[in-house]
Amino acid sequence: xxxxxxxxxxxxxxxxxxxxxxxxxxxxxxxxxxxxxxxxxxxxxxxxxxxxxxxxxxxxxxxxxxxxxxxxxxxxxxxxxxxxxxxxxxxxxxxxxxxxxxxxxxxxxxxxxxxxxxxxxxxxxxxxxxxxxxxxxxxxxxxxx
Length: 145
Description:
The protein has 145 residues and is mainly α. The chain is built from 5 helices and no strands. It has helices spanning 2-46, 60-81, 87-98, 101-117, 121-138. Helix content is 79%, strand content 0%. It starts with a helix and ends in a 7-residue tail after the last helix. The longest helix has 45 residues, at 2-46. It has one domain (28-138).
């Protein structure tokens, strides 16, 4: 019977290690993708000829602000996804961002799209917190207006 317990302990330790490695790999992948996204947005912001069509009319100044806010929001999303921010600290950072009108304007434009593209509960929580903080400052919910 003791051999069975020993084997079970070894198997459990192996499974725990595999889960830990998989979680670490997923976090590393998220951070690499976030880095590529940040580099792309920096390039787009610096080079108007690389601007993509948004389907909306925006001045060059508006588009540059939109891209820069996107960089900030995307960084927050990546930090939240990999666990560098919990719900409380995300709310603090979102509150700080939403103090700025250009951030609220950005979120009003993209909130519905972000809801549609959400992959999982983590994205849902992130979007809900940013929407709540936006509504707190603007007095309206960007998803319903």
